[in-house]
Specification:
Strand content: 15-25%
Number of helices: 19
CATH class of the largest domain: Alpha Beta
Largest sheet: 8 strands, antiparallel
Shape: globular
Radius of gyration: 25 Å
Helix content: 25-40%
Bound molecules: 5-amino-5-deoxy-1-O-phosphono-D-mannitol
Number of domains: 3
Length: 610
């Protein structure tokens, strides 16, 4: 969601800005722009549409200059258009700003600035920031930005440049991610690491309410009171290739192929030679684990679906009550937080605005926060009491895949560790679970073989023109049905819903008619018979049933019109495997329909505004 890149150095800044913005395309955007200090002029170029439109324009009419800011905008206030695209500047063109986030009091500020003679040319909230900084400008851009911040309410990451301060870029972070890349004789600003990884691995991860003065030869960071802040250099330990397609047509399919490795990377370092789980890095005491009275899981989207799997699994194996909530709902209810409740907050990016707000709310009420995130140094990882990383590597495609399966793996590890410490899982079972978990990466690889993929491609080819799809499942299979359905709708735009199979007769069955596609997830042995009844019910109404199931489910295999088999594992771990065919099915439907798989319409990878 919106991307910022800033550069100061000897290179042609538009090259660095465009290159960096192209690495942030995955975040989702609908327009792009740059502002460059060129000699004593501020040149601004911005275009609705893909980055290529801006790039082509810059080829036709290049802008010289070694200091600039760039932006990809995902529209919130005002439609996608050239005018609403960032950067926004003052009428004199002295100051230019790019912004991620939302300024909640922008109407009030706009009225105020109107009384001071400022006029506005866009519908954005961002334009007020440029004018506000100008309003406070008395010879120092840095000081004007600090003053303006006192009036801004909401979330914002900013990059600001001024004609009058040609030697520095100002970067600000408040509730929206921003990093500083440290080079030799050049420095960078970016919303995310991939934007600058081609130039440097040394990074400062800004904290909220910090302001950085970024010059060619150095960076100084201050808090909101102007007091200098020392930052440790964060060394990025993954390669630029990890954030490239590496020969695949899309990031999504590359990331599905990476699942076996991601699962292995997440699991192996946490299993000792003796076959024990080692969560030392988590640093949560046995006393704390024993005292947990209730677990509350909060997340959004796919991460929420991972949490739902954990609710079923934890309650069954640990006998601890588990509440689960969607973060945007949690933050507006009045939750009761007990002193011995453990909050598990799940977020691939660690930056999702609703999830962060829910986490902070729970923390304020005294909750202990255990974060599961993929991004080292993310807001979530920095604010939580305990952090467990999914070592999935960068996930670029909007549709989350390897993050989901590694989130599940982390949750299962927690289940086993908590079960052992609390005496809910005995030693024999514990050992058997671990043996089986170790086999999961190889089993995941079996689903991504050429033959299995061919079968799913064929199935996607056959079904990609349907208008509606319904996913059914019970218990853990229902959680996977929800995730499969989300995947399909977000990247193929096929209308899709998921229902608990037992709920069919209470309404959804009215939707079934001749040839309605019903995708049934059936992996939980004790529920096979129930699922068989549901398949019969929908087939009796003309549905075409595609079952994702296992060898053991003979009756289901006989009844379904089409089956996709997944390897056997313990029932409790089935979601890690059964979800993969749903990811592949969604992917190939999207490809068949000619959709831009990695950048589906209206969606952003990291939803950093409410
Ligand atoms: O970064 P997060 O895990 O917090 O993101 C949560 C959701 O926005 C995300 O899972 C979203 O639902 C994906 N597009 C799903 O593929």
């Amino acid at each position: 969601m919106c991307g910022i890149v800033g550069y100061i150095g000897e290179k042609k800044s538009t090259d660095v800005l465009l290159d960096g913005l192209s690495k942030l395309e995955y975040r989702g955007y609908d327009s792009a722009g740059v502002a460059v200090l060129s000699g004593d002029k501020m040149e601004i170029r911005k275009k609705k549409g893909r980055l290529k439109v801006l790039g082509d324009d810059l080829i036709k009419m290049p802008i010289e200059g070694g200091m600039g800011i760039g932006h990809t905008r995902w529209a919130t206030h005002g439609a996608p258009s050239d005018e609403n695209a960032h950067p926004h500047a003052t009428a004199s063109g002295d100051i230019a700003v790019v912004h991620n986030g939302i300024i909640e009091n922008y109407m009030k500020l706009k009225d105020y600035l109107g009384t001071k003679g400022y006029t506005f040319v866009s519908q954005t909230d961002t334009e007020v920031i440029a004018h506000l900084i100008d309003h406070y400008y008395e010879g120092s851009l840095y000081e004007a930005v600090q003053e303006a911040m006192k009036r801004l309410e909401g979330s914002y990451a900013l990059a600001v440049i001024s004609k009058k301060d040609p030697d520095e870029l100002i970067a600000v972070r408040k509730d929206s991610p921003l990093i500083i890349g440290l080079g030799e004789g050049e420095n960078f600003i970016a919303s995310d690491i991939p934007a600058i990884l081609a130039y440097t691995r040394n990074v400062y991860l800004l904290n909220d309410d910090e302001v950085a003065r970024v010059r060619k030869d150095g960076v100084d960071v201050f808090d909101k009171y102007g007091i200098p802040v020392q930052h440790d250099i964060f060394k990025v330990d993954w390669d630029v290739e990890a954030a490239e397609k590496g020969g695949y047509q899309h990031f999504m399919i590359k990331e599905i192929h990476e699942e076996p490795k991601a699962l292995k990377d997440t699991l192996s370092p946490r299993i000792t030679k003796e076959g024990e789980i080692d969560l030392k890095n988590l640093d949560i005491s046995h006393r704390k684990i024993k005292n947990i009275q209730k677990i509350v899981i909060v997340a959004c989207g796919t991460a929420y679906h991972a949490g739902l799997v954990a609710k079923y699994a934890f309650e069954e194996k640990l006998r601890i009550p588990v509440e689960i909530d969607i973060a945007s709902e949690y933050r507006y209810r009045n939750p009761i937080v007990g002193p011995d409740d453990l909050y598990i907050i799940i977020s691939q990016s660690g930056e999702t605005a609703d999830t962060m707000a829910a986490m902070r709310m729970a923390k304020k009420e005294g909750a202990q926060i255990l974060a599961i995130t993929n991004v080292v140094g993310s807001t979530l990882s920095r604010e939580a009491d305990y952090v467990m990383y999914t070592w999935a590597g960068p996930e670029i495609a909007v549709a989350s895949t390897k993050a989901y399966t590694t989130q599940l793996l982390c949750l299962y590890l927690l289940m086993l560790e908590f079960g052992k410490v609390r005496g809910a899982i005995d030693e024999l079972d514990y050992a058997a679970y671990i043996t089986e978990l170790k086999a999961i990466p190889a089993k995941a690889a079996e689903i991504i073989t050429e033959d299995s993929i061919k079968q799913i491609m064929k199935s996607a080819h056959k079904h990609c023109t349907v208008e509606d799809t319904y996913f059914l499942g019970r218990n853990l299979d229902y959680a996977v049905a929800l995730e499969g359905s989300l995947k399909l709708k977000e990247i193929s735009y096929i209308h899709s819903e998921a229902f608990p199979a037992g709920e069919l007769k209470h309404g959804p069955i009215a939707l079934i008619e001749d040839n309605t596609l019903v995708i049934t997830i059936a992996t939980q042995e004790r529920l096979f018979e129930k699922t068989v009844s549901n398949i019969k019910e929908v087939k009796a109404r003309g549905a075409y049933v595609l079952a994702i199931t296992t060898e053991k489910a003979d009756l289901i295999r006989d009844l379904a019109d089409e089956i996709i088999l997944v390897p056997e594992t313990m029932n409790i771990f089935m979601p890690i495997l059964s979800v993969i065919p749903t990811q592949l099915f969604a992917y190939y439907c999207s490809v068949e329909r000619g959709i831009d798989v990695d950048k589906p319409r209206n969606l952003a990878k990291s939803v950093t505004v409410e």
